[in-house]
UniProtKB/TrEMBL annotation:
Ranges of residues in domain Spt4/RpoE2 zinc finger: 10-68
Family: Belongs to the archaeal Spt4 family.
Name of the protein in its database record: Transcription elongation factor Spt4
Keywords linked to the UniProt accession: DNA-directed RNA polymerase, Metal-binding, Transcription, Transcription regulation, Zinc
Gene symbol of the encoding locus: spt4
Biological processes, Gene Ontology terms: regulation of DNA-templated transcription
Pfam families: Spt4
Domain of life: Archaea
Length: 68
């Protein structure tokens, strides 16, 4: 059996979908974070990413596709 890796519970911002590890979103400052999210999206270059445009993402970073 592989040793279990302890993973920090990450949350996603309900306002801008950013995945954050702290208690508040660093992008928009919102504290409306949800642990119930799905779809991990890493945006490197938002200007050339169709999905980033669809989600109105203008900053590179890690995002959740769906936040409930
Ligand atoms: Zn946010």
């Amino acid at each position: 059996m592989a040793p279990a890796r302890k993973k920090k519970q990450m949350k996603a911002c309900q306002s801008c979908h950013k995945v954050v590890e702290g208690e508040a979103c660093m992008t928009c400052g919102s504290t409306n974070l949800s642990e119930d999210w799905a779809g991990y999206l890493i945006v490197v270059d938002p200007r050339h990413s169709g999905i980033a445009k669809q989600m109105n993402i203008d900053m590179p970073g890690r995002y959740a596709l769906k936040v409930r």
